Amino acid sequence: MTEEFTNVIYALDELRNDTGVPKSIKSKIGEMINALSNSGNDDSILVNKLLNELDDISTDINLQPFVRTQIFNISGMLETFN
């Protein structure tokens, strides 16, 4: 199912390379990209886990509003797989 996650991986990678994103968030995003790149058969569990992580990230007070909006957009993309 990795091909289906291509757009999500691309969006996460853009977010990771954004200079307005704190380093702690960038490392979490990198872990998400690795998880999606190496996804196995049970992708629904992975999608739910990533949605929870994105929800946690979105509550960070250090995020710029446009970064938070990008995180919500990525969450929406992942929800289509659920």
Structure in words:
With 82 residues, this protein is mostly helical. It has a single domain, classed as Up-down Bundle (de novo design (two linked rop proteins)), CATH 1.20.1440. The protein is 70% helix and 0% strand. It is built from 4 helices and no strands. The longest helix is centred in the middle third of the chain and has 16 residues.
Short structural summary:
By secondary structure, the chain is mainly α. The protein contains 4 helices and no strands.
Per-chain topology:
Elements: H1 6-16, H2 23-37, H3 43-58, H4 65-79
What labels describe this entry?
82 residues, mainly alpha, de novo design (two linked rop proteins), 4 helices, globular
The CATH architecture? Up-down Bundle
Question: What composes the largest sheet?
Answer: none
In terms of per-residue confidence, which ranges show pLDDT below 50 for 5 or more consecutive residues? none
| Rg (C-alpha, Å) | 12 Å
| CATH class descriptor | Mainly Alpha
Number of DSSP helices? 4
Helix content percent band: 55-70%
What is CATH's topology name? de novo design (two linked rop proteins)
**Annotated CATH homologous superfamily:** Ta0600-like
Order of helices and strands: HHHH
**End-to-end Cα distance:** 13 Å
- CA-based shape: globular
Nearest-integer average pLDDT: 89
Percentage of residues in DSSP E strands: under 5%
Structural class: mainly alpha
User: How many DSSP-defined strands?
Assistant: 0
Structural domain count? 1
